[in-house]
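Reopening this one. Same input as before:
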Amino acid sequence: MTTQRLDRTVLDRCRQLSTSTLSDALDKRGLPGAVEGLHPLIPEACIAGQAFTLAYLPVGASGGTVGDFIDDPGPGDVVVIDNRGRTDCTVWGNIMTEVAKRNGVEGTVVDGVNRDLQESLSLDYPIWSRQGHMRTGKDRVMLQAVNVPVCLGTVRVEPGDVICADGNGVVVIPLAYIYEVLAVAEDIEHKEEAILQDVRSGMTLGEARGRHGYHVLQTPDPA
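Same output, byte for byte:
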């Protein structure tokens, strides 16, 4: 599947915004995208990239493998693994971390668990998952498909969608809406910064919020 590749400047703009602000922008446009329950291995990490998706299933009677996909994603990609939220076996470990780091992958997001945390920390490689766990996924799960629609919890992810992640969590921005969501998010960021400046100058919080329309910043516009 061929997806539109975004210019690096677009991803740079995403990295300048917190996932909190991007989530507000998604709300403003009535779009889902805030993923629940995924936590950063490195709290200060901040990434933005396009989804390279992987779908996993339990191993069937005919068997299967966890796959050898890791040589394919590169700079500008975020590996997105849908392991259906399983916390009993892993689908990401130190070998994949090392190859991904070498190939310039932005980071990995797992709806499930990952292992070899210390090795990933030593390489400063960003990972978001439900938790750490040591048990292998080999002979337990199998790679079903690469670059197909997947889910992170209840959020649908299409190949090429924009994945932004930081210490607050993970958001998914549909590729078709990236420029619209970015513009809204940057406007929200500007207004919240103006509120802070007014408060620091002595204005009450209520006055500053009223001046800049804080209470409706994320409210969808009337149809």
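So the earlier flakiness isn't reproducible anymore. For the record, The chain has six helices and 13 strands.
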